[in-house]
């Protein structure tokens, strides 16, 4: 789904011809990544003086920081999640849109699309001639909602590895759209109730938009519905969606959050559940999710996309955070890359991430 008013993909810089060694200091902690020379954290979940927030998921956009940097959309999601007491100081915001550059403590910071969810951005840090890219959560192929990611040439790449194993080869957005609509219509034709499990931010809105655009009556869980107005402001359409009411579900597709799925099945109604996630590619996905229909689509890059990003970045040093960091680092080293896995930041356990 493409919208004419989406920001154009900014041009990516040329590779650095100087060929110097990677030298920027980078510290990896359980609660985030720190660049001490410019006093900037990347996706810190603990309160800091200043942090870059790559996107609005709760495992990244949290913590009461003094200063926060991110796209205006991401900062808006962060604000929606933040609780500020009367005695607390309001975080100072530094919005950075795609293609814009900010001078920060001697470094130049430039944002590029990450394709993960609405507003998600990669950060290019240029410091003393060196280029470091922090992807945050990233999806290389065109997403169902959001601006398509670009691969930014760099000397050092810090990239997620949520799906960094060859078993994760996931559907394209076109395939996912077709599967979602087909399952909903099959269920409704036999007077069953299709229920789609989606995360509160990102996947949920994507599923709702697909169903509504297909003319299917759609009831939406409140945790998903609260973010719909921001997507509508960005140009995405949700014609005729309704608030979810457990007493009135007949003839509708339901879009619910994962914690609500088990409750639906327990009620014993004629409900058929679909699980839309990269984790649906796992052999035990039905047992884990309680779903009948598995639709392996994600707003993260799958294995092949991650390899493409690493290869085309031209980076000489690869740092892996989140997910299968150690296995993916070994795969990259066998292919000739200098790679290292780290236990850093959100989702340090493999299946903690919103996949």
What does this structure look like?
The protein has helices at residues 72-81, 173-189, 203-213, 222-225, 228-233, 258-266, 285-289, 303-313, 325-334; strands at 27-29, 32-35, 40-42, 50-52, 67-70, 92-95, 101-104, 107-113, 121-127, 130-134, 156-161, 193-197, 218-220, 242-243, 253-256, 271-276, 293-295, 317-323, 338-341. It is of the alpha/beta class and 355 residues long. It has 2 domains: 27-167 and 299-352, Ribonuclease Z/Hydroxyacylglutathione hydrolase-like (Metallo-beta-lactamase, Chain A); 173-295, Rossmann fold, CATH 3.40.50. The two termini are 20 Å apart. The model is unreliable at 1-7 and 15-20 (pLDDT under 50).
CATH topology title of the largest domain: Metallo-beta-lactamase, Chain A
- Listing every helix as H and every strand as E from the N terminus to the C terminus, the arrangement reads EEEEEHEEEEEEHEHEHHEEHEHEHEHE
Residue share in β-strands: 15-25%
**Low-pLDDT segments:** 1-7, 15-20
